[in-house]
């Protein structure tokens, strides 16, 4: 049974009691990410995420880390394209400590200029590490190409130029515009006392307000077919092929998940079996859907020897044509649905996984689906639904690609 409560200032609380566990996971979700940025402040959301760990009016950075370490808990955060989350997982008896640490970071971070300069160096190292990981970087190059000119295509980490330009007042102004009460969801899952949890969160957040209203309007990106090749002397060629996908909450969301599982989302998938198992051409090959509030994308990745690049592209296109012409079998449909349900149910055994699920759902969809509802949505996927999604997504005339490696593809252009 989910608890949903909204404070007078607009902050939302979502919670789920699980009495048979000994832990509690807490997340503070903010509806802001790299999509809220522009060419001048790209990387701001991610940099703020880092800075909240660098000291407050009450604790140094070391004391923040030590406070959670000494109770055996976990404290972390992440930035995505449309949200940022600060979270902790602790023993249920330490809920108050975890909430105090998270809210101290959230409300009282000092943003010391000396700490900012040090942390810029850390993030620059992170950017450098990412540049040295072509298997990750190719996905960013791909989204930058297909969503060119739209903030959704910009990298979450930002660039060296935009990062170095960030000033303390820029952080304060950005948070004032985006870290507004109506953009905040506090998510709690685990063994806790409902009355106590609601009371403590309300005490921490009820007086929170900002001087500015969030006036950022994000434009819906247009999927632009393109081919982008980044020449790099790598041992492997890294390929990303993609199609226009589905937005969050689309009626065919679960149909796409079932289809993707069959096509390239699992070890038993067609792509994995054909390219890795049958042909031995790639160690890593997979596909995955990404969904955002008003758009989505389906991406296919493969890493192979540079001289096998065009052959692998041919095989991927063959599999796409086959699934468009012949569809899938009833056995594939049944097996995929069972596999997705199994993975989903296993994921529910983690309080942090459930905290992520209900927090993100409330933040971006203003709705929480129960496990029973999600299982029903997966079970309801029909062969007609799959065929509709195949027609919607696998449009080879609108296919885009990005490659990192020493050679260009002669097939892609």
UniProtKB/TrEMBL annotation:
Residues 12-159 form the Peptidase M16 N-terminal domain. One of its GO terms (biological process) is proteolysis. GO terms for molecular function: metal ion binding; metalloendopeptidase activity. Residues 166-339 form the Peptidase M16 C-terminal domain. Gene3D superfamilies: Metalloenzyme, LuxS/M16 peptidase-like (3.30.830.10). PROSITE patterns: INSULINASE. Pfam families: Peptidase_M16 (PF00675), Peptidase_M16_C (PF05193). Belongs to the peptidase M16 family. PANTHER family: METALLOPROTEASE, MITOCHONDRIAL-PROCESSING PEPTIDASE SUBUNIT ALPHA. This is Predicted Zn-dependent peptidase. It comes from Lutispora thermophila DSM 19022.
